[in-house]
Every structure is written in C-alpha cells, then in structure tokens.
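To assess whether ligand presence alters the predicted conformation, the chain was also submitted together with coenzyme A. Input:
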Amino acid sequence: MRDELRIVPMDETNYTDAARLARENLREGWSEKTYEEQLKNPSDRTYIAYFGEQACGFLSAWYVLDEIEINNVAVEKDFRRLGIGRKLFERLFEDLPEAERTVLEVRESNAAAIGLYKSLGFVQAGIRKDLYSHPDENGLVMIREKG
Ligand SMILES: CC(C)(COP(=O)(O)OP(=O)(O)OC[C@H]1O[C@@H](n2cnc3c(N)ncnc32)[C@H](O)[C@@H]1OP(=O)(O)O)[C@@H](O)C(=O)NCCC(=O)NCCS
C-alpha cells in the first residue's frame, strides 16, 4: 500500500516526535519537556505530519482570543519542498476558521520560511531589531488576516 501523508494533532503518544523534529531542524526549538507541557495548555494547537510511520514535519501554534500565534514550524530536510509545510498551515486554518488573524516572527535571512509564509498570504507588518541571537539577527513580524 502506498504511504500517504497524515496530519494529526499532537498528543501524549507523539509529542516526542515534535520535540525531535524541533531539536534536529530548528535553532530555537523547544525542549521535550516544553512540548509535553503544551499538552496541558488549552491554547496549544500543535500538529505533526507523518509519511507512513515517519514523523516528517510539525507546526506549533497557540490560539488566544481570536488570534493564532505561530511558535515553530519545521519539515525534515529530505521532505522539504513537497508541500508539507503548506499542508500543516492549511490544517491549522481549517480547524480554526473563526481566527481573525495569524501572527509570527521569522529571522530576516530565512528565505525558505518567508517564501512559505508569503505563499500562504502573510505580509510583513514590522521588524524587531536584533530579536534573535546566535547569530544576532532582526526578526520580521508577519501577519495573515482572515479572508
Ligand atoms: C520553512 C520550511 C518549514 C518550509 O517547509 P516545506 O514543507 O519545505 O514548504 P512547502 O513545500 O510547503 O513550500 C510551500 C511554498 O513555500 C515556498 N518555499 C518553500 N521553501 C522555499 C525555499 N527554500 N525558497 C523559497 N521559497 C520556498 C514556496 O512558495 C513553496 O511553494 P512551491 O514549492 O510550490 O514553490 C522548511 O524549509 C524548514 O523546515 N526549514 C527549517 C526550519 C525553519 O526555518 N522553520 C521556520 C522558522 S520557525
């Protein structure tokens, strides 16, 4: 049988997959303990993408009042540019149709992430100088309005 992409919410059976993907693919990834703590956070909306049995991407967000805040998104190197990042966002937006806007911050040199966000309708709303360290770098604030 052909493997298919599945996107599932994070739960107590799979949060270690999100932590591994963060550790291996992000400079500012959270610890396993922090992902575990998100299971008790009513605002948390984290999804993990599986190709067959392999966890290949995840997206972590919080939904507070009418706003989605993106915390992290990453796709395993060998699985990039296959539409998985886009599908993770589409699942989040499908599950929260009432959200008025979605906000995120991104390193200004992260062309892949900025390309993904623009393709989803995010626009640059501001710059936060030296938001990031190791190396120091400005953060772009990007927003996607509903509709
Ligand atoms: C950013 C990231 C999540 C994108 O995931 P992905 O699954 O490869 O993205 P998709 O295949 O869904 O791409 C969708 C669109 O985004 C844009 N995009 C994706 N990667 C791009 C790149 N390297 N350069 C330019 N645009 C890119 C394109 O418009 C693409 O559509 P197309 O392939 O039809 O041209 C992935 O590159 C990644 O994990 N990077 C390392 C972690 C990271 O930087 N995360 C963001 C900071 S928290």
